[in-house]
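Input sequence (323 aa), recorded before submission:
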Amino acid sequence: MICVIGEALIDLVEQPRPPHAADATSDYRAHPGGSPFNVAIGLARLGQHSVLQARLSGDAFGRQLRRHAEANGVDLSVAVEASEPTTLAIVGLDAAGNASYDFYLEATADWQWTAPELAAAPAEASWVHTGSLASWTNPGADTIHAHLRSLRETGRACLSYDPNIRPLLMPDHGAALQRIEASVGLAHVVKASAEDLGWLYPDQSFTEVLDRWQTLGPALVVVTDGARGAHARTGDGQQFEVRARSVPVVDTVGAGDAFMAGLINALSRIDGFQRVAQGNGLGHISRQAVADALDEAALVSALTVSQAGANPPSAATLAAARG
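Predicted structure, token format:
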């Protein structure tokens, strides 16, 4: 069982306009989204028992999120029935399909976590993932951090983290960096994008950041870099370069979340990986097993960007693409 903690929001995605449209109006389509929500969907489609611990509003958008999660086999047994409204992200796409975001998140459901709500997490979950807005947006971020610290201290589950930086929502760079590094220090597996690191550490190279994060405590740190693939470093200093798959890109919405879901799915299948939660690092895992997991995550991401929206592949689609 894999438990994903974090936001479930609605992406209002701008639709393409006719080439010679006379008016200034835009049409938007409501898509279920949010990085943790996407990861939970991706894991369920890949055949995992995926539990989403999110605060889902009772409004129309919240009901849409519930329907979509349930239709994809996500377990909502510990999802909170929240009275606050659903968070909205306004998504614009450029000519290359790259996404930009604006947010409406004041007093919405995703940030109001209480300790009792998080304590309802299933004890049998062997992996817990979090990240994105919920991990650094208060008041709930402090509560999530305390919950993860308890899990790390007990060694009950493998923890993974993806900061999913949104500079628009982080006016205080120093405070954001402190928050992100504290979360990196609690996780066993960390995934971040090149854009994340470029904003967090504008004067440092990937290698310098990987060196820095390695000292904080993760067993594996991965940096994704779009069409240039990914870089990875284990806690004992092994380095990996991951090639990107060459596919026609429709858009990049959900690409990083798909990579994260693919990575968790692949790593969790490695025999003995659970020992990482007890602080054993990756020394007992073969280099080839780690490389294969990273390659599979890249494939899951590639299959996602070749379709519109955050639409990760099923286990059958992944198996067919792997050959």
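Checked by second reader. The chain has one domain: 2-15+28-106+133-322.
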